[in-house]
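Colleagues,

Please find the record for the two-part complex below.
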Amino acid sequence: MSPSDPRQHQPGALAIGAWREQLLSAFVDCDREGARSVIQRALQSGLTLEGVLSHLIHPAMDTLGDMWGRGEVALTQQFIAACAIEDAAEGIAGARLVRAPGPKVVLGTLADGHGLGVKLVSIFLRAAGMDVVDAGFGLSPKELVSRTLEEGASVVGVSVFLLRSAKFIPELQELIAREGGAVKLAVGGAPFRADPELARRVGADAWAADAFGAVGAIRSLMNGHAP
Amino acid sequence: MTAYERVIAAVSRKEPDRVPVLLLMTLQGAQELGIPVPEYLRDPAAMAEGQARLLERYGHDCVYAFSYGAAEAEAFGGAATFYPDSPPTVSRFVVEDPSDVTRLTPPDPESCEPLARSLELTRLLSARFKGTVPVIANIIAPYGLPIMLMGMERWLRLLLFGDAALRDRLVEVCSEFCVRWIRALAAAGADAVGYFDPMSSTDLTTQAQFRQWMLPTLRAITSRVPVALVFATAGGRNAHRVSEIAGAGAAAMVVSSRDDLASMKQEAQGKIALAGNLNNIAMAWWTPEQAAQEVKRCIAAGAPGGGYLLCDQHGELPWDVKPEALAAMVETAHAYGQYPLDSTGQQ
C-alpha cells in the first residue's frame, strides 16, 4: 500500500499535532534530516502530500512567519524550511507541487545574478498555493515585462542585490504602465531591507524584507489591496 | 588631537576631543579624479591620490585602504564583474562543486595581483599619513568568504547539511588565508582592519550557529593577528551579540542601521567601541539637512561616554551620495560631537 493510499487509515489529530510541533522544531533548529524524517513518518502513517502541506508545513510556516515578524528567524532557518518543502514535494513524494489555477506571479532578478532570495520566495509562494513562474536571473526590465505579459501574470516579483540594480525598477514600472498598469510590482533584496523607503522611491507597489514577508506582500497584491 | 589620536581614543572606549568621522569611500575617489571606476580600482597610486583628495575635501578622520571585496574571490581564482557606478561583484565562482574545495589553497597576498594592489595602496597611504590619519583596511571573515567562492546557496547547503570534512577544510583554508591577509595588511601599515563577517548577523544565523561556528573563529583569528579588528556584518543586524563579539577580542563593531544604537551602546559599555548606524542606502537620497539630522541622532545615541565612531553601517558609501550631504555629515559631527557632550548628547 502506498503512503498516500486512500484506503489507509488517516492519522488522528493528536499525531498530526505532534508532527507539526516536531517539524517546527526542526525548522527552528535548522535540522533538515529531522524535518525530512517527520514528513516521511507522516506520509508513511497515511497522511497525503496535500495533508502534509496543509496540516504540517503550512501551520509550521505560519508560526515561523510569526517569529519572523518578531525578528526571530534567520536566513538559515528559512533555507531549511524551503529545503523541507522541496523534499516533501519532490524528493519524498516523487511529485512536484501542483500549479494552482489562481492568479500567476512571475519572479526574477533584475540586472544582477544573486538568486537565492528569489528561489526561497518561489518555494514559499508555491507552498502557499500560488502559481509561480521563475523568469531567471540578470534580466532587463524589458525582458521581465515581456515574460510577465506572456504568462498573463497579475504580479511581478523582482529581487535585486545591488543598489545599482534597484535603479532599473522605475524603468520596469514605466514599461508596466505603458502596458496598461494592470500588473502589480513587488520588490525585495538587500537594498530594500536596508532602506524601507527605497521601494516607494523606485515606485514599487509592495516590498518585503525577505522570503517570509514576500508571501504576505504578494498575496495582498493578488487580492487587490495595498500590503 | 590628530585624526589618528582621535580614532585611537574612541577605539580605546575613551572620549576624544570630538566624535571621529569615518567616511568610508572607495568609488568617490574615482569621481574625485575623473577616472572610470574599473580603472581606478585597479590602480593603487590613483586610489591613494583619491583618498588624499577626499581627505582634503571633507576633513574626516581616516583614509580607506580598501579597493573591493571581490578581489579576495579573484585571489582564489574566481572572476569579478566591474561596473561604472558600483563596487565589483563576483561573476565566476572558483568552487562549482563542493569537491572543488579539496583543491583550494590559501593564496599569498603579496603574489596575487588583486591583493598586491591593495597592499600597495596600504603602503602608499601609510607612507603619507602614518601616525596622523589612521589607515583602515578590510578583509572578509572565514565564514563569509565562501559566499564569494561558491555562492550563497551552495555555501548554505555545505554548511548546514553537506560533507562536514569539506566544510571544515573550506573554513580552515579561509581562516589561514584570513590570518595571512590581515598580517600582510598590518605589515603594509594598516592601523585597523575591518573584519567582514556577514554570516554572524542575526539576519543570517541563529545564536547556536553563531556560537558553534563564527564566534570561535573570530576568537582564534584575533589571537593570531597584530592589529585591531573592527567587526562588521555588512549591514546585518547583530544586537544581543555585542558582549560575545567583545569577548572574542574585536576592538570595535559596526552597528546596523536597523539596530538600536542606544541600547547596543549600553551593552557595549566598558567592553567594545561602536561604530556605524548611518544608513548607507538611504544616504544616496539624503539632503544636507537630512544628513545632519541623522548625524545628530547617532551622536545622541552612540557618543555619550566616548567609544563611538561615526560611519555608515556597511563600510562603503554609495556612488550617488551627494558631496553636500557628506560635507554636512562632517560639519555636523564637528559642531555637535565635541566632548564633553551636553546632557542630551548634543551641544
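The domain at 3-336 of chain B is CATH 3.20.20.210 (TIM Barrel).

Comments are welcome before we finalize the supplementary table.
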